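worker-3 :: picked Type II secretion system protein H
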Amino acid sequence: MRAIKFSQRSSKQHSRGLSLIELLTCLCISAVLLSQAVPSLERMKQRQRLNLLAQTLMLDLKQARHEALLSTNSVHLDFDQQSQGACYIIYSGPAKQCQCDASGAPVCTGGAKAIKSQWLPSQQKIGLKTKSSHLSFSAKQGAVTPAASIDLSTQDGDSVRQIISIAGRVRSCSPNASMGQYPTC
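worker-3 :: tokens ->
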């Protein structure tokens, strides 16, 4: 039998693990990659928030029309801009009798009764713009006066527009084609 002789290797050839320089290099590369990914993730989050608010607004407009169809009284939707944010309120009763307070809670007077309100705080960085601060959905018909468009937009330029026809029907589009799931206006 032949004896097999194992040679002992030097500790440098046999070492396992990472050196401090290799570890620091990996950490630096990871930090650079992460710093590039964070803004993209934030924009994606803003776009998702915009999409959610656009869908909520569309459903609320449809709800206002539905409430008017079932009611003997008109249903109103008022938009209110404040420094802390924007809101809209769906309510029944006399027109132009509801607004939002500084915290976004609906405040109605003159016999008006809030059905639903939505607060968009300015920290969310999503703006709401419309030329019509007041919409009225007629009882039993659901027609809206006046026809209007409502824009929701982010600071990055992504936007969704809700268009309400005189018949009270709502459609969504993207004015600058920035939101791929919506047709271009």
